Amino acid sequence: MIYLDSAATTLQKPRQVAQAIAYAVNHYSSVGRGGHRASVKAAEVVYDCRAEAGQLFDAEAEQVVFTMNATHGLNIAIHSLCKPGMEVVISGYEHNAVLRPLRALGARITVAGRRLFSPQEAVEDFRRALDNGAELAVCTCCSNVFGYVLPYEEIAKLCRERGVPLILDGSQGAGILPLSLKKTGAAFLAVPGHKGLYGPQGTGLLLCNVPGKPLLHGGTGSNSLEPFMPEELPDRLEAGTHNVCGIAGLLEGIRFVRRQGTEQILRREQALLSRLIPVLEQGKGCRLSVGKGQIAVLSVQVDGKDPQELATRLGELGVGVRGGLHCAPLAHESAQTLPSGTLRFSLSAFNTPKELKTLEALWKKVL
Amino acid sequence: MKEYYLTFRSLTAAMSAGRKLGERGLRLRPTSTPEPLRKKGCGFCLKFTEEQRPVVFRELSRLPYEKLYVHGGGMWKELSL
User: Fold this and answer.
1) Taking the CB of residue A155, how many other CB atoms lie within 10 A of it?
2) Measured in whole angstroms, how far is the alpha carbon of residue B57 from the centre of its chain?
3) pLDDT at A222
4) What percent of chain A has pLDDT over 90?
5) Residue A47 near chain B (CB below 8 Å)
6) CA distance A235 to A221
7) Is A165 exposed, middle or buried (0-12, 13-18, 19+ CB in 10 A)?
8) CB distance from B11 to chain A under 8 Å?
9) I need a labelling partner for B44 at 20 to 30 A (CA). Which of A33, A108, A182, B67 fits?
10) Which residues from A are below 8 Å from B44, CB to CB?
């Protein structure tokens, strides 16, 4: 299969990831639920993952909270900071993982930076919204539909200067963009384990500059007589048994990213993207959304053809892509690609030029 | 023989302290907090000896511990430095 759907989940992982998961399932029990070897070993691998994640995202180990995915992390963050009726500014490229919890909480939402690949405009829009009284800001580092890298560092600076808390969605940026909890000063940074960090599904990280409010209440393995969740991180936001096997795999994924270097991975992916663009462009009626500094996520519209049907046809030919709205209707509204959405190609560190060559013939076939 | 115990609010805090002390050459693994020291049910601690005490005490300001105890002669005593 030619897998070009890494914005959903990376499918090819470093071999150490599966090895770690296979080892964990038979050797590690639950963290902090016993003093025996299997529990101690579990605690060590989980802590190692916190420490590595802390290094990657410029945070202390205790600031690293394990989640099921970025959606889970974003829900914790949004429920921690957003109150009903609160004025919240978001970018025009937010995923439903941001939009739906905000709507559920009754936030009053201002959308900033609608124009695609226009970072300066996004900064000005955010500035205006913050100066007009926005009490919370949520911004994706990078659009999952268009690969547009938003000016999150500048937006973070605006928020810091005004004392407005910021939630960053690092779903597409983790593993390739410089994401520093310390430098941005974001209240929360949510990332999935299963995309650019090459971990398994069911893992994610929430990097926390503030303690937050628990979304789940339950056992934490210590201070059990306390009737409420602990005040301190990470336990405060980690009720229940950890996904130790998943975290063991995520640890190896993060180690891979750190060994390769995020800049190196990004450069490689962008080099592949520059080969992909001419392949797709040559189709009649194909319109590509391309912009400066784009990560290797590329949306295409083909005149007269439905993106989901194209994705299905490519799937039948052994090419994995995604068509439709990508759980980000706001992004499509901003970029005016509604109602059908787009056909999305998204690359990883494991794609090869040879695959793109093979894609060329298959692309002609589906068109 | 005296034994010292640092108690922690979470296993992560205990492990973090253990790693920091590991940088100073001490191998201390979190264990269950002894019953007389448990205030709120289960907990985690780092136990260390008189011999290890000078190194631990030098690092105390870096460690996210809750309380420090000494156990000797059948007695428990909380220490504050």
Assistant:
1) 28
2) 10
3) 84
4) 96
5) yes
6) 9
7) buried
8) yes
9) A182
10) 32, 222
CA distance A321 to A341: 13
Q: B32: nearest CA in chain A? A: A35
Strands (E), chain B: 3-8, 31-32, 44-49, 67-72, 75-79
If you write DSSP's letter for every residue of A294-326 in order, what string do you get?
Answer: --SEEEEEETT--HHHHHHHHHHTTEE-EEE-T
The rounded distance, in Å, linking the Cα atoms of A103 and A209 is 24
Spatial CA neighbour of A257 closest among A249, A248, A265, A247: A265
Kindly give, in sequence order, each residue whose CB lies less than 8 Å from that of residue A347, ignoring residues fewer than 6 positions away.
Answer: A4, A6, A269, A272, A273, A276, A296, A297
What pLDDT, on a 0 to 100 scale, did the predictor assign at position B1?
87
User: Which residues in chain A land under pLDDT 70?
Assistant: none
- What is the model's pLDDT at position A112? 98
**Distance between CA atoms of residues B63 and B21, nearest Å:** 9
Q: What pLDDT, in 10s, does the model give residues A6-45?
A: 999 999 999 999 999 999 999 999 998 777 899 999 999 9
Give the closest of B29, B30, B40 to A223, CB-based. Answer: B40
Q: What does the pLDDT read at residue B40? A: 80
Question: In the 8-state DSSP scheme, what is residue A76?
Answer: H
Question: Strand A136-140 relative to strand A166-169: parallel, antiparallel, unpaired?
Answer: parallel
| Helix, strand, coil share (%) of chain A residues, nearest 5 | 45, 15, 40
Burial status of residue A81 (CB atoms within 10 A of its CB: 0-12, 13-18, 19 or more) = buried
Q: Which of residues 117-156 of A touch B (CB under 8 A)?
A: none
| Tokens matching residue B17 | 């302290």
